[in-house]
Amino acid sequence: MTMALRTEAIETLLVEKGLVKSAAVDALVERYEQDIGPLRGSRVVAKAWTDPAFRARLLEDGMPAIRELGFGDNTDAHVARLVVKENTESVHNLIVCTLCSCYPWAVLGLPPAWYKSAAYRSRAVREPRRLLAELGLDLPADVEVRVWDSSAEVRYMVLPQRPRGTDGLGVEDLAALVTRDSMIGVEQL
Fold first, then answer.
1. Is 101 noted as a catalytic residue in this protein?
2. Which one of 42, 97, 150, 182 is the catalytic residue?
């Protein structure tokens, strides 16, 4: 049975037993798909690309900066810091949590299954360039790969490089280009 079918069966059972209302589940899913998660992160990135002062604040201390955008309601309040690492022409950043799967949910959404896997967590540290290549990201040899290990106290997010040829785009159009994987560092835009 696939995960989607299993999830649907559990939801049906919970609704039939009166433990949850279908509308409540739909509202929660919609909130994560439309408001929380990678859509928030993509807005943060687009704002950083278009507002140098915001970008500076984001790179200095990510949590207060993202709260400026109204994401303070559930931005991992228990986390002491959100550190944002900027990709450049010569440095590519990769995020991992080697101990478990610490992850900034409020700005990146639900973590992908591979992020929580033991294989990703160990290989990201041991052989990041090879792992990235297997995920479809071949970086030039002269680009330094830096791996950032999240913890319960500090979560990381990548500020991807702004794609070439996007100078005329506004924040909303730029946000549409940003992916969760680019904010983890396994993809370039």
1. yes
2. 97
97 is catalytic: yes
Of 22, 42, 90, 100, the active-site residue reads 100
Both structure tokens of 150 = 């999240």
The answer to whether 156 touches 83, Cβ cutoff 8 Å, is yes
pLDDT band at residue 161 using 50, 70 and 90 as cut-offs: very high
HSE-CB for 67 with a 13 A CA cutoff:
12
- Catalytic residue (choose from 22, 42, 90, 101): 101
Predicted model pTM: 0.81
pLDDT score, position 73: 53
Contact 43, 171 (CB under 8 A): yes
- Give, for 174, the enclosing helix (H) or strand (E): helix 171-175
* Domains within the chain, CATH numbers bracketed: 3-33 (no CATH), 37-184 (3.90.330.10)
Both tokens of 123, joined, read: 């290989």
**Tokens describing residue 168:** 């005329």
**Residue of 42, 102, 150, 182 marked active site:** 102
State how far the Cα of 30 lies from the Cα of 15, in Å rounded to an integer: 18
151 catalytic, yes or no? no
